[in-house]
Amino acid sequence: MSGKYQLALYAALLLFGLVAPFLFYPVFLMKVLCFALFACAFNLLIGYAGLLSFGHAAFFSLAAYSTGHLLKVAGWPTGLGVLAGTLAAGLLGLAFGLLAIRRQGIYFAMITLALAQMVYFFFIQAPFTGGENGLQGVPRGSLFGISLQNDLNLYYVVLAVFVFGFALIKRTVHSPFGQVLKAIKENEPRAISLGYEVDRYKLLAMVLSTTLAGLAGAMKSVVLQLASLTDAHWHLSGEVVLMTLLGGMGTLLGPVVGATTVVTLQNYLASSPLGAYLPAPVVIGGIFIICVLAFRRGMVGELQALLKKSFNLS
After folding, report:
1. What letter does residue 273 receive in the DSSP assignment?
2. Which of 4, 44, 157, 295 could form a disulfide bond with 302, CB atoms 3.0-4.6 angstroms apart?
3. What is the CA radius of gyration of the chain?
4. Which of 71, 119, 311 is nearest to 234 (CA)?
């Protein structure tokens, strides 16, 4: 899509984001934004670096627990708590990357899954997490003198965080660093032959992806005032894969569309009588199967291909 069309699309989406809390429930919208950022962070790794991680829930949950504990127990300001949780996720991503980055394909995926399960079992045993009950009652506090107890105030903070994360990913993808990542994904031996230190590039992508995933987890703990074992479970790692593939892997807006679809279905079916007959995992799984069979590039990927073919938009 050309630059002017992209700019118009992003401006329209931003405008919709600004008026959305007057049309929909703000807490639901904030949850969507948190998981959309989480999916975008994951897409940076799989869609542009070609690294499939089955352990991204570890970074999401570490930031959620760290932020929740610092805000509730240590009494830290909200901004510092979120930054600390994000930093913790980035450091964990660095540790994971140093252990797994030399492996590729299913081996990389299995190592990240195994390490994430270690983190999950640590959270079960650790006293500060609250075990099965989770860390409840996380205070929202305030930011720059603005109370975050008000859903509308908090929504615009979450929206600003999402826009920052999305813009950072977009800038990274279109930077020389992002072009090298694409080259590594397409043909790693050739990238090595050109003199690129591919492990260093992949490690940097891993750290950036996990840091942004942590930012999403930290904001989620503030929004829902809760950090629980669900955040660390391998189901969430699988869910973010589903969100990315459903929306369109390797596209900027695909993970946003995928996350919005999944979170909306989960919330609707959880509160609807239909959910008793059609559980959310069954419906989402059915949609995923249809997309795999009919829309291999995901919803956004197929739409981009259609626009390119019909209107010659590149």
Report:
1. G
2. 295
3. 19
4. 119
CA–CA gap between residue 156 and residue 130 (Å, rounded): 30
Cβ neighbours of residue 171 under 8 Å, at least 6 residues apart? none
Between the alpha carbon of residue 143 and those of residues 68, 154, 186, 220, 295, the distances in Å are 16, 9, 43, 16, 43
Percent of the chain with pLDDT over 70: 96
Q: And the tokens for 259? A: 């996350």
**H helix or E strand, kind and range, residue 199:** helix 198-224
pLDDT in tens, 10-22: 899 999 999 999 9
Amino acid at 162: F
d(CA 200, CA 208): 12
Tell me the whole-structure pTM to 2 decimals.
Answer: 0.92
What's the half-sphere exposure (Cβ side, CA atoms, 13 Å) at 89?
35
Domain ranges of the chain: 18-233
Which pLDDT does position 3 carry in this prediction? 66
Among residues 2, 139, 118, which one has the least CA distance to residue 61?
Answer: 118
Specify the residue for token string 């003199």.
195
Q: Residues 57, 232: contact at Cβ < 8 Å?
A: yes
H/E/C letters for each residue in 43-65? Answer: HHHHHHCCCCCCCHHHHHHHHHH
